[in-house]
Hints:
By secondary structure, this protein is an alpha/beta fold. Helix content is about 45%, strand content about 10%. The strands form 2 sheets. The protein has a 5-stranded parallel β-sheet with strand order 1-2-3-4-5, covered by helices on one side. Strands 6-7 form a two-stranded parallel ribbon. The radius of gyration is 22 Å and the shape is globular. It starts with 9 loop residues before the first strand and ends in a 32-residue tail after the last strand.
Amino acid sequence: MPCPxxxxxxxxxxxxxxxxxxIALQPGGFDEAxxxxxxxxxxxxxxxxxxxxxxxxxxxxxYSVDMFPxxxxxxxxxxxxxxxQYTINLITDGAYSYVKFTDLYKGTNPKGTHDRxxxxxxxxxxxxxxxxxxxxxxxxxxxxxxxxxxxxxSEPNAHWWLARPKxxxxxxxxxAFATQVQKSPKVRGVNISQLLSANIxxxxxxxxxxxxxxxxxxGYFSAAEREGKDVLLLLGTIHPNxxxxxxxxxxxxxxxxxxxxxxxxxxxRRPRKCQFPSKxxxxxxxxxxxxxxxRRN
Length: 297
């Protein structure tokens, strides 16, 4: 069991009914890791059900990437947890959050769209509480993807963590609806680099544990250190959106010259080859801020 039983009063959801090896092991490929996560949502839900049976007064705090609103339906609602005994934090998947929001609310009446999504989400919630299970639509990741903001807005104890809330947009109404969402107390601007700086960097032990967990090492930028240069890290995205990336990389090096050591950090899901050394495409670039020489800057 990964979480000690004495912590039943305030649970942070964690993988359960799995061996330590199963919990620790994550496939190297993005698609394989994502599928493993999907496959284990039901394990989460079963574990929460049993915890609630052990102690009906337990509190549950769910943190989930915002691509998976179905987790809320299966883990919280289907287990009939009272509203005052859970919190929900949807954490941005990255560019997906802003692209999805813009696409959902792109019409001339985004508020009308949102009212409909709110109504549908609440209907699915009521069904899950009434029947002790989520229906087919509420259980499916793809079918619930449209409800990421409706979910948060409908819940008294829910928040949406975004790195850049100002990237939310609704062009059909001159960004009026998007601006309202940006200013909502349910939307929290969370900077990963600042969190790492505040909670990990001050402790050498925590830094080393974090790097070990994500397979980092200080040798990533050793060439830059030997040459006494700062690092310039080029970040990639999905391949179709990287038109002219090689030209951009060459221009960047030509413009800034030899004062930097150049590296590439591809997108986690499908990293690309780059003319500069590539570094740990499987992880977020913010985590690299823990390593020298980046952590100095």
